[in-house]
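Hey L., structure's done. Input below.
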Amino acid sequence: MSSAATPAADPDRLWSVDEHLEDVLTTVRPLDPIELNLLDALGCVLVEDVTVPVSLPPFDNSSMDGYAVRVTDVAGASEEFPAVLEVIGDVAAGAAGLTRVGPGQAARIMTGAPLPPGAETVVPVEWTDGGLGEGPVRGMRARSLAPEGARGHVRVYRSAEARAHVRPQGSDVKAGDLALEAGTVLGPPQLGLLAAIGRGTVRVRPRPRVVVLSTGSELVQPGERLGEGQIYDSNSFALTAAARDAGAIAYRVGAVADDADTLRSTIEDQLVRADLMVTTGGVSVGAYDVVKEALAHVGDEDESGGGVDFRKLAMQPGKPQGFGTVGPDHVPLLALPGNPVSSYVSFELFVRPAIRVLMGLEDVHRPRTRATLAAGKALGSPKGRRQFLRGTYADGEVTPVGGAGSHLVAALAQADALIVVPEDVESVEPGTEVEVVLLG
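Output:
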């Protein structure tokens, strides 16, 4: 178990961002694979290579509505001298027991229908009179309205090469081909492919279940009336949405009042549906920092090493953090600060990668790039702290949004990037190249 399991020996130690992140990522482990029905596997990571058991398409079929014919029977056909062929019936998609197309014959064929024996090519219906004897047509009449169209004669006004408008068997994938590699994230196209090759279930790492819980007696549910000294609970909504955006199945728990016993009880109740728990608020040094009070000594008597460690990080915003495991199954818990910007930045840096590890993904971090700082003045940064400023990124430039305050929710809503100012930099001049974390 990592150092997260045991309270830090020195409570005044200042952890670096990288040390805290490493502690989180070495503690969290990918979830065990399970077999899921296809639709339940949406967003999950495949844990096995999937090979193709049957070629796609499994048989030669038509790519057009038209007539299945022999090449020699339409050679030299034109509007002046059409080829006149006997129509021997219809071939619809899903048809079986097909009639052979012989010399001077044609079978009316629909898109996706198997090419009947004897036929060598498909003539689109627009190249024919559709059996009406009135010149080229735009389409076929519905069989229910004109069943006689499957019999009689058809005039063909253009020749066709062999295999024209025919989708060959195995032209998409062949039996034995690799359909999907282990590690693939299953989206709609991948699930469609699995269904097309006949897979009803697939072995994946499930999407992790994340419980998000905010604390604070001052918090009120949006839609309710604010009382004196109260604010709306925004963190739990932002972080639950962020967890879902990261790929998790996320549950939001209503704000818990500043009472340690109530919080402990709530966490214990939620463990049954949690692969990861996230709390926000109550991790600093105030008299009402309930998360710290409730969890600081959880696991002290647990021989298996569970517990939550509260620490200070050399970063801004987000200096106070907590991390460890709780419950008999040692569910990871990340305790984030309560200020909205602090909690969201902390989520992006620490919680999102943890979720991606649980999913079994290789690339767990947001993409990063270098950009030129577009600002009206130099940006200050506290010495010894890695600062993450909000910004907007476009065309190789990043522009700060709002100030450094950790309460500026409106500015956060405009940002699509984090500007990273290293610990040893106290001022960044406009035009300087900076590191940028891309959020969207």
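Helices lie at 17-27, 71-74, 188-196, 235-245, 260-270, 290-295, 340-359, 409-414. The CA atoms of residues 271 and 329 lie 9 Å apart.

-- N.
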